[in-house]
Amino acid sequence: MEVFSREDWQARAASHAARIDAYVAPHLARREARVKHPVHDFLFTYYAQRPAQLRRWHPGFGVLLEDAAEYASLKGYARLERGVAVTEAYVASQRVLLETLLRLLRATAGRSAHLGCFGMHEWAMVYRLTPEQVRHADWPLRLGPEGTDRVVESHRIACSHFDAYRFFTPAAAPLNALTPRSDDRPDFEQPGCLHANMDLYKHAFRLTPMVPSDLVADCFALAWDIRTLDMRAAPYDLGDLDDGAFSPVRVETPEGKREYAEAQRRFAERAAPLRQRLIAECERLLAPARSPRPA
Questions:
Q1: Does residue 72 sit within a domain?
Q2: How confident is the model at residue 1, as a pLDDT?
Q3: Which residues in the chain come in under a pLDDT of 70?
Q4: How far is 208 from 45, CA to CA, in rounded Å?
Q5: Beta strands in 46-170 (DSSP E)
Q6: Is 84 helix (H, G, I), strand (E, B) or coil?
Q7: 295 lies in some domain
Q8: For the chain, what is the domain count?
Q9: Rg (CA), the chain
Q10: Domain that holds residue 202
Q11: What CA–CA distance (Å, rounded) separates 284 from 287?
């Protein structure tokens, strides 16, 4: 086991919290003021990881923390002879999760990136809805309901990600060329998909505290940037939000399609090493070295 002194791990924990606070602090301030943000709230409301959990630093399995009584009662940890660490018993109890994630991650990494969806999943989520029915009802549709519907009807919809597809409106679902389900994700997910790459954050925090928090934070930062593109390409008019920070990517035009596909390609390249790090962590955790017994 690698050993971190209290001075060492406290410095790492403080650095992690400061990094995350750049994202979390504005969200908590908005929540206190009861102000919604259609872009930046997503990672804190859709994913089942609370801000306090994201801020808490973990070293990952295989690291012992000296003088760390505050970790002893946390999930997965136990007191060992020289300090506190995530236990081998806890890792063994997560075998099904590790195997399931490893299968999905390997399958996704093994496919070529498809860059031709042009973000139509967000458009399919509002297809044939009234303005009052859409998820972000406080923000108008750029092209209006009829113009939005025409865009959906003029494109081939081929969403491979179940957690996007399941939010298609009843009228839009039959238009999708694929029918992904919750139980067949490894058969569909591909590395060009924005939502598959955002979900690297979900996979990382589900492996907490077995994986180091720097990996979780890296996946979170990727998801944050992808969410910005996701909503810039959505049908909503967010031009007045945050002083124009979310100018539209007009995916209904040839120029917008090129801009979206290029950004999608860059995100796929950025996600690839994170996916490989998660694969490596799953492989490591499925074959852990022997660790000291709890004291």
A1: yes
A2: 86
A3: 288-295
A4: 19
A5: 63-65, 77-79, 84-86
A6: strand
A7: no
A8: 1
A9: 21
A10: 2-286
A11: 5
